[in-house]
Amino acid sequence: MTELPLIGEAVAVAAEPRLAGARIGVVTFPGTLDDRDAARAVRLAGGTAVELWHADTELGDVDAVVIPGGFSYGDYLRAGAIARFAPLMSKIIDAANSEAKLPVLGICNGFQILTESHLLPGSMIKNDHLKFMCRDQVLRVENSNTAWTLDYQAGQEITVPLKNQDGQYIADEKTLDALEAEGRVVFRYVGFNPNGSRRDIAGISNAAGNVVGLMPHPEHAVEAGFGPESLDGIGGSDTDGLGFFTSVLTKIVGGDK
Amino acid sequence: MSIETTKKFNIDTVENAAKTPDTELPWAELGLKQNEFDEILKVLGRRPTGAELAMYSVMWSEHCSYKSSKNHLRQFGEKVTPEMKKDMLVGIGENAGVTNLGDGWAVTFKIESHNSPSFVEPYQGAATGIGGIVRDIISMGARPVAVMDPLRFGAIDHPDTARVMHGAVAGIGGYGNSLGLPNIGGEMVFDSVYQGNPLVNALAVGVMRHEDIRLANASGKGNKVVLFGARTGGDGIGGASVLASESFDDTKPSKRPAVQVGDPFAEKVLIECCLELFKGSLVEGIQDLGAAGISCATSELASNGDGGMQVELTSVLLRDPTLTPGEILMSESQERMMAVVTPENVAAFEAVMDKWAVEYAWLGEVTDTGRLIITWEGEVIVDVDPRTVAHDGPVYDRPFARPEWQDAVQADTFTGSVQDAGRPSAPSELAAAVTELVASPNMCSKSWITNQYDRYVGGNTSMAFPDDAGVVRVDEETGLGVALATDANGRYTYLDPYHGAQLALAEAYRNVATSGAVPMAVSDCLNFGSPEDPDVMWQLAEAIRGLSDACKVLGVPVTGGNVSLYNQTGTTPIHPSPVVAVLGKLDDVARRTPSGWREDGQAIYLLGTTAAELDGSEWANMRGHLGGQPPKVDLDAERALGEILINASRDGMIDSAHDLSEGGLAAALVESSLRYGVGARIALQDVLDRDGVDLFTALFSESQGRAVVGVPRSEEVRFTDMCTARGFTHTRIGVVDAASGTLDINGVESLSLDALREAHEGTLPKYFG
Question: Which domains can be identified in chain A, with CATH numbers?
């Protein structure tokens, strides 16, 4: 839990003190790739990012957890299948299911780990076109009541990068119906389904709304000049992903910034 | 296990070698020439052991020793002015050169070839190409921050091209995406000359603080030598199999791949592990294991340091326990590093290994004997002066001569040729020509490829494909960053190697300047045919001479690179293909200039002048013609243009800039429009009148030293004043028209952006799915 191994110094954000007091853990497994990006997103949103190591046996003093993207342990078996058994994961699972309902966000590989952990239903298989795909993706926020979507409006369309090989969300019809009925489909692909996911589902939540997983990468759309617009110019803001992180901070500090 | 296994070997010790001078050795099968074997006998004063023979044969190979190119490559060092050296922290010779970025930052980058493995096994060949170049960057003490891949494959419609394409792109993606390194650009050229010999080059760039620079040397008697990362296996042994006579064991796995197999997860962990070692200052010297594996790492570390090293080879952790000493020494198994660690740091080193669950083995220690001694269960199997292995290999002054056919090729110009019949001139013909151009294999959108690469990871990618250069932020506080572009035009270089190589540099330089960055350093990957062919050797000599001369004029030093020879099928060489990478610096990446225009009403300017230069062009290529002279090189004009683009970017005078190169103005106008889907109205009459060319030539000529820029109305006076003051030709050729959805060029039928996009983006999916 030392300082983050960033390129360069941490960006100094004149954070609102109450937000800076909110500590968001970012988990690193061997093979995790987007941990620095997730930590940067937390900081840009005004919070404090805390490094968590997969082998840690205690979660420590964190108010929320982000499980970032990458290829945990190489993902040679099945994406997230080994990570699910990391010592830290059992603590995260307990905390997410506890009375306190720790907010947990799984992005890409993090989403895969959450389904492997049974914190979220369904699973991810290889993209229907069988290729890795990196593109700027439009999503519709279907549920703005989860811990990670409070700062969005229901129905709002946002653009964030998508990049994965195993991103096709699948579940049995009954599960899918239940997710729809309970408002647990949090994000849907708009305009183009990039991987064949059932019912265009890009992200879902648990029943309580504290655990959210999605395949696209909001942490890559948090800073002007480094988000989707600068790279593909398909319009919209290139900081559409920041809302994930401000949402959870709002939630942590009591909904009153 | 090791005892049981080693019993099966007939270990050829130094003692045995001295006693049995007449033993037949398979030196020819290992690729050594008679004179080279004689030289080894002379150096050692006895016959080499099997293990020594293995080491010399790989280290004296063309790939490792640069024996055919060394005499010519010297020019990169000789033609360097003190001014060019001022930012060079580490020059040619180390794993990669290092350039000062200021504010205590340094950047290291290098481009390398992985051509033949990528033809044999495209996926693993391309994947391990990335792995190898990334380890070179780590070896310098840097954190890798981006990769790029210049690719050259055979004809787009040849059945084998799809095999190479799918394999190589998936390999680059599969490996690179798993490392967390954004892929920010590269090239894709299709030409039948690369059919049996595709070019897969890989570039990596890394950054570090000045104090973190590490070199590959083993100093300090008593310091420990450690091998860590993946285990050593039987992959990538190549020629060492002829040494199998060492083994009595006929049960060993017989068909092992000559191409190395990559494990990106192991590499990713290795990166993080090395960075943690650097942070704790736990290593004295470090070297990656690439070509020639342990042979290379031990001999280079030892000869660059205090000159001696003692290593016990049975300590090496193996994937395959049946490997013989020669095979272990030659194995090119991936994801391995060798380091030198002081005895005091051993425990801390091991703690880092344990944290990342990386395997390691202490092999021996640094000595001051000046000898590299390798033992096998205590018996000496190698006893050599490491310099003779690593540095004092043979050097050849290969004969070269201007090919007899060169004059005839240069005399065969496109204009007036059979292929030039029916040159488009009517508005509808020109519109069809523009559409055909941007849909052609070499000019079409490469997003089918680049969409399989992660360009976002790291959060520092400021520009990537399809902009002129890839731009990555280095310092989050100041916005300091680097820009990179790679270029080569094999057709130009075929027509004129000296100027063709200069054109490759000029284009990469221009691309970097177009992004707003100040060009600082060069890395080159010289892909040529057989140096034993005097025609090819002449191409190589001329290209190196041209490139080194041009580097001096442009003031950018070569800091490293790689030579790849014998790229040919039978006796037919590829086009000489010097791939040149230029690195530039941006004080603040927020100032970088993208290649497309966005703002309605902005003025569009063409910088530079256009001559009738269609020889070697994409247009001529589309019509099946290759002959004449490549476009004229004017390095002073390139420098002047670069300064205008850099100043305009820094002072906010332009919002977009796109260089003119392959496909000329036609390609640039279409690409700048499609970048953000914003159209334009263009009139070229002033250009035609001034430069004395027709509309077709204005659109398709590939004259150098040109760029198209979008200038905000409020900046127009300031911008044109700057161009005038610098005496650089500039012409207002049009205006951005956001509402139109078309690219309208006077004299050319209106081109709808939707149709252009469909043509531009449809080609690769059509061939590759």
Answer: 17-252 (3.40.50.880)
C-alpha to C-alpha distance for A208 and A206, rounded to whole angstroms:
6
Element (H, E) at A112: helix A109-116
Domain that holds residue B44: 2-68+212-390
Q: What are phi and psi of A243, to 5 degrees?
A: -55, -30
- The pLDDT tens digits for B81-120 are 999 999 998 887 777 889 999 999 999 999 999 998 899 8
* CB-CB neighbors (< 8 A) of B456 in chain A: 37, 134, 161, 163, 217, 220, 231
| CATH assignment of the domain containing B381 | 3.90.650.10
Residue B40 in domain: yes
Residue of B180, B356, B474 lying closest to A8 (CB–CB): B474
Measured between beta carbons, the chain A residues lying within 8 angstroms of B473 are 7-8, 226
Which ipTM did the prediction report? 0.92
Average pLDDT over residues B254-259: 58
Mutate to test the interface with B, among A1, A2, A7, A238 (most CBs of B within 10 A): A7
Structure token pair of residue A119: 């914190």
Q: Which residue has the tokens 């990335």?
A: B130
- As a whole number of angstroms, the distance between CA B128 and CA B262 comes to 5
- Residue among B334, B457, B474 with most chain A CBs within 10 A, to mutate: B457
Rounded distance, CA B258 to CA B256, Å? 6
Q: At what angle do helices B122-139 and B264-279 cross, to 10 degrees?
A: 0
Query: Is B178–A71 a contact, with Cβ atoms under 8 angstroms apart?
Result: yes
Task: Give the start-end residues of each E strand in B250-402.
Answer: 285-288, 308-312, 336-341, 360-367, 372-376, 379-384
Mean pLDDT (chain B) is: 93
Question: What's residue B238's pLDDT?
Answer: 59
Domain count within chain B: 1
* pLDDT beyond 50 at B254: no
Query: Cβ neighbours of residue B579 under 8 Å, at least 6 residues apart?
Result: B111, B150, B187, B199, B201, B486, B487, B488, B504, B524, B525, B526, B527
Among the listed ranges A115-129, B182-196, B246-260, which one has the minimum average pLDDT value? B246-260
A116 is catalytic: no
- Angle, in degrees to the nearest 10, between helices B264-279 and B159-179: 40
Chain A residues bordering chain B (beta-carbon distance below 8 Å): 5-12, 30-31, 33-34, 36-37, 40, 70-71, 73-76, 131-135, 161, 163, 165, 217, 219-220, 222-223, 225-226, 230-231, 233
